[in-house]
Write a structure and sequence with these properties.
The chain is built from eleven helices and nine strands. With 300 residues, it is an alpha+beta fold. The two termini are 42 Å apart.
């Protein structure tokens, strides 16, 4: 009897095996589900469902520049650091990362669960979802593609920078608008690597202060005012104390106002301005994406 797509889908949902493996199993068993499951178990391909409940908190952050104007990054999780360091797992991460290059529907950070991973293919033509399922079977651990990021610009608009820190525990993509070209463009690329390192180390929440929600600033101001009120100082002095702490808050959470990690005597904003002068063209850091392995995230 002919095996239907619905049967293949049902078997895949039950076993976690790849779609092509499910079809082969159903073909082998003449459409008998129990026989197909036995076939997959014998081949070691039906372990994905068993691993689904396991916690996948280890893994790797991998980032890559596809071109000077496009960067991609993923968080791929597994259960143990041992598996995360294996060549097989690292190769899997590289395969999956490559699948998201040029995917115009991805802009910024996305939860992988919100993407159609059955429609996105790796270089060999297999679906991302199937490659992950097959890797679960072969490695014997729960493997989860958790988050995907892609940042891109049109040619001539600017550049993208990337950086991976601490053996794949933190990854960053940074976007900058600039008309610099030729030798000047290389100055921008060097700057963006430094800025990506800054984001990895200092963990800013915003690029600049006008991106900070007014409610967040007001909350901080109220906290500082309550603290300062206990000093018994006059109101004008308290206001100066509060304003000073608000400025310090901006310097902590806004990238361009942070002290530059490689030279605390300057700020990231001043570094950008100096590089703009050297490159002979304005440079504006417009956004960044920072992933830290296993962190909680409202977006993913």
């Amino acid at each position: 009897m002919a095996v239907t797509a619905a049967q293949v889908k049902e078997l895949r949902e039950k076993t976690g095996a790849g779609m092509m493996d499910c079809k082969a199993a159903l073909d082998s068993s003449g459409g008998d589900f129990e026989g197909a499951i036995r076939y997959l178990r014998e081949k070691g391909l039906a372990t994905a469902a068993k691993r689904a409940g396991k916690v996948a908190a280890e893994g790797v952050i991998l980032a890559r520049l596809v071109s000077p104007t496009e960067g991609v990054m993923i968080e791929l999780n597994c259960e143990t650091d041992f598996v995360a360091k294996t060549p097989q797992f690292q190769d899997l991460a590289g395969q999956l990362l490559g699948a998201f290059a040029g995917r115009g529907e991805i802009d910024g950070l996305r939860a992988a669960a919100d993407l159609d991973l059955a429609a996105i293919k790796v270089a060999g033509g297999k679906a991302v979802a199937d490659v992950v399922a097959e890797s679960i079977a072969s490695m014997g651990e729960s493997i989860v593609l958790r988050r995907v990021a892609r940042v891109s610009l049109k040619a001539g608009e600017g550049s993208i920078g990337s950086y991976v820190h601490a053996g794949g525990k933190i990854g960053v993509l940074v976007e900058a608008k600039s008309a610099a070209s030729g030798a000047a463009a290389s100055e921008v690329e060097k700057l963006l690597r430094d800025v990506a390192m800054q984001v990895a180390a200092a963990n800013p929440r915003h690029v600049k202060r006008d991106e900070v929600a007014a409610a967040d600033v007001e909350r901080e101001r109220e906290i500082y005012a309550a603290q300062a009120a206990t000093t018994g100082k006059p109101a004008p002095v308290i206001e100066r104390i509060v304003q000073g702490k608000v400025e310090k808050f901006f310097a902590e959470v806004c990238l361009v106002e942070q002290e530059f990690i490689r030279d605390p005597s300057t700020t990231v904003g001043k570094l950008v301005a100096a590089t703009s002068k050297t490159a002979g063209a304005p440079i504006e850091i417009t956004r960044f994406v920072r992933l830290q392995l296993g962190e909680s995230s409202g977006e993913a």
